[in-house]
Sequence to fold (326 residues):
Amino acid sequence: MDMPALSVIQPEIAVAHPVFVRQRDALLQERKVLLDRTGRHNELCNEVDAGSAADAGCSKAFSVLITAINSHVQASMQYNDHLLAAEAQYERVRIINGMNALAKRLDWSVDKRMRLNNALNSLGADGDDVSIAQVRHAWQDILARGQNKDLMLKASKGDGPGFPGAGTQSFNDCTIFALANAAGLPYGVAAARAAELISQGEWRDAADRANPQNAIEKGGLNGGEVVMLAEAFGQAEVVRSSDFAEILRKGRPVLVNVMPEGGKGGHEVVLTKTFQHGGENWYEMVDSNQGPQQRRYLSGKELNTILQENGVAFRPEPETVPKLLR
Fold:
């Protein structure tokens, strides 16, 4: 039986969670014992006569050995899962701390910093528990639907801010484009602020900070960066998928992190309208992968299939002009 490889512990995780070091050492020792037992069993039992007393003894020993190996495999998988969760939580905390630190260096008000921290800590998983095949199938249906005239008409009469445009995009990123629209800023100003955010973001590696536009083009903004950029322009609110339609009805765009067509990774899209179709909520979505002028239409079920995180709703701060990051 194949045994899963034991994940290597990153130094920072080892310091923060020494229990993983002890667990891995114990599993490695147990694995060595099991492999030795397997080798001895094979030497003793490979050539015994069927039906003999030795054969009966080997069958009993094999059953005991398999039980021990299965238990070890389960313990190894649990160790890997728990370590992966600890790494994800460590990374989440590292990013949040970095963003809070930058907001303080930028001399944001106490209210803005509190709102930022609350939003960052509220951002979490959303959507249905689905397979990669289901994600790909949902995207196939969404893209095959294209610019369906009936859905376009219903969306035009639906609720939401729409996506009128804020100048020409210099590269495809509808998240920045949506925030520019919502904040009433030219696209170039919003894009410059996003690049400045990345350049000062200590949670990013040196290469991304040195070339922020390339970083945004290559991988876009992560969920926390969307929150911080929205807060830089106005006010950010993290909202659950069950509230998306209501938020759109209030005239606020919703930025969401979805699984892309390949079923792996993350990609930010913007919900701009909600409308009724077939007795359920449907959405108009702008996806920079499809071009800034292209709308896509999807059902609430399809949205929950590709959705990965809560949404980020934007609200301009009343009677204020969004501040530059620096």
Summary: The two ends are 58 Å apart (CA to CA). Confidence is low (pLDDT under 50) at residues 321-326. The longest helix spans residues 53-105.
